[in-house]
Design goal:
The protein contains 9 helices and 14 strands. With about 325 residues, the chain is α+β, with helices and mostly antiparallel strands. It folds into 3 domains: about 1-60, Winged helix-like DNA-binding domain superfamily/Winged helix DNA-binding domain (Arc Repressor Mutant, subunit A), CATH 1.10.10.10; about 70-275, Bira Bifunctional Protein, Domain 2 (BirA Bifunctional Protein, domain 2); about 280-324, SH3 type barrels, CATH 2.30.30. The strands form 3 sheets. The protein has a 7-stranded mixed β-sheet with strand order 3-4-5-9-8-7-6, with helices on both faces. α2 packs across α3 (about 30-45), α6 packs across α8 (about 240-265) and α6 (about 150-170) crosses α9 (about 265-275). The longest helix has 22 residues, at about 240-265. It binds ligand BTX. The site of ligand BTX has 29 residues, from α5, β5, β8 and β9.
């Protein structure tokens, strides 16, 4: 409700001072009973609101939950993250984003979930998305581009996320083609780009982003424990504020996306190559039609991986898993 939002806004602006019930009811133009009811509701959601006789209320803690209020506070983007749909639990934010895209929701609309029960990766693989541990989200973009440029958006997203993580948390990341973000060799982020397109034009792109933020070692299933990590684990177990990270990611993504639409892929490509672990190395690419071994030359202007085989022949890889 709007009282709830205004109440949160007042508490956020008045971090240190107590505000009396009387003042709140005047400010928000409602009864003191209404104020009291909303404060009780906020407490049930995990907000910590102190009440002190004769002084009033003060908010001293917020739930570790992603909510629209918290993420949108101080968000400086024009589009990305300005419309957020939140779910406590959902099979996959991708599914919801696809539906919203088809309903015509605007570019930059985001679907967030605290938990995904059937989070998906590429090729029908699954993405482990335990409750409250990460940022599990899907973003709708509507670039006016031909469909064959869509893979560039995966690389763009990877670059934007790496830059956001590095600047916000001071953690060094590497990118493994096409969509893995690794920290100390382990996967911390996965990106899945899906498309609605006609023959010559993209209608919408759904960029699915899964970031292991506060996932603990025990929360990873045993088969992932050696392959996966979380930002918190890489920070020695410190708990990381998901809302601020989400905000920085939106800003970074929007900046990259706008530059890309204006100037094309070249500068993203350069940045991407600078973060890449696979380029310039001997690699094995496992594709659905078999294995290709060789030297990773780079990526094309389309975002396609080029591997030079021992006989000098160049293979163009559109989809594969890379082993270093
Ligand atoms: P991918 O196919 O490259 O990676 C999936 C593989 O990664 C799995 O087979 C497994 O080995 C490993 N894996 C699974 N879960 C995790 C995890 N939490 N951390 C590290 N490794 C893991 C990557 O696909 C694309 C993932 C996109 C996920 C987002 S979350 C929001 C959106 N909704 C949705 O359903 N998917 C996207």
């Amino acid at each position: 409700s709007s009282i709830r939002e205004e109440l949160l806004a007042v508490f956020n602006n008045e971090k240190e001072t107590y505000i009396s019930g009387q003042m709140l009811s005047e400010k928000l133009n409602c009864t003191r009973t209404a104020i009291w009811k909303h404060i009780e509701e906020l407490r049930n959601e995990g907000y910590v609101i102190e009440a002190v006789q004769k002084r009033g209320y003060r908010m001293t803690g917020r739930p570790d939950k992603l909510s629209s209020d918290v993420v949108k506070r101080n968000l400086t983007t024009n589009k990305i993250g300005q419309n957020i749909h939140f779910y406590e639990t959902t099979p996959s934010t991708q599914r919801i984003a696809h539906l919203l895209a088809q309903q015509g929701k605007p570019e930059g609309t985001v679907v967030f979930a605290e938990e995904q029960t059937e989070g998906k990766g590429r090729l029908d693989r699954s993405w482990h998305s335990p409750v409250g541990a990460g940022i599990w989200m899907s973003i709708i973009l509507r670039p006016n581009l031909p469909p064959q440029h869509a893979p560039q958006l995966t690389l763009l997203a990877a670059v934007a996320i790496v830059r956001a993580i590095e600047s916000e948390l001071n953690i060094t990341c590497e990118i493994k083609w096409p969509n893995d973000i690794l920290i100390n060799g382990k996967k911390a982020v996965g990106i899945l780009t899906e498309l609605h397109a006609e023959a010559d034009r993209i209608n919408s792109v759904i960029v699915g982003i899964g970031i292991n933020v506060n996932t603990t070692k025990e929360e990873f299933p045993s088969e992932l424990q050696h392959l996966a990590t979380s930002l918190s684990l890489e920070k020695g177990g410190d708990k990381i504020d998901r809302a601020s990270l989400a905000r920085v990611i939106f800003e970074s993504l929007e900046e990259m996306y706008e530059k890309y639409l204006e100037h094309g892929f070249t500068f993203i490509k350069l940045l991407w190559e600078s973060y890449s672990v696979s380029i310039g190395k001997q690699i094995i690419a496992r594709t659905i039609s078999g294995e290709i071994r060789g030297y990773a030359r780079g990526i094309t202007d389309e975002g396609v991986l080029m591997i030079e085989e021992s006989d000098g022949k160049i293979q163009y890889i559109h989809s594969a898993d890379i082993e270093l």
